[in-house]
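Why do we bother with a discrete structure alphabet at all? Because it lets us treat a fold like text: something you can write down, compare, and reason about line by line. To make this less abstract, here is a complete entry for Subtilisin inhibitor domain-containing protein. Read it the way you would read a sentence in a foreign language you are learning: slowly, and without expecting to understand everything at once.
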Amino acid sequence: MNRTSLNPSRGRLAAPALLAAAALGTGLLAATPATATPVAPTAPAAASQDTAEARSVGRFQITVHEGVGTGGKVIASARLNCSPTAGSTHPRAADACRLLERAGGQFSMLPAQQLACPMVDKPVTVVAKGFWKSTARIFAHIYRNSCEASAQSSGVFNLSR
């Protein structure tokens, strides 16, 4: 399955590019339906980083919303801090950080995991906002269900304890 857009012709939900930019309202994402590319922050955003963010390899807020888009109920949320993982609320912070390190801090490059997910259309929208090695990163994607979100991210988006 294409991980950056869902194909409506296959009976799946469309993930419009505007979802990320409009929902996040930050202007830090340049996207088309098939791509999501982080863009370096402007001076005010970079200046607002505290010293902990500057010292950390990566810091993200990961939020899982029910449904298509970020207007749905938040069903899970976690803070992910990498190197050090202190202060993380992610249930498997060390594993998630190791996977992100291998993916160069790109959520879209996380390896998929073989899971037997139900063929149930109960969409979730995952948003990850933060910094990786002092570069702003934003990722937003609609998955068929929470199992698929977990499988397509090797468990990084599984925020259950």
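What the structure line is telling us, in plain words: The first strand starts at residue 29 and ends at 32. The chain has one domain: 9-152.
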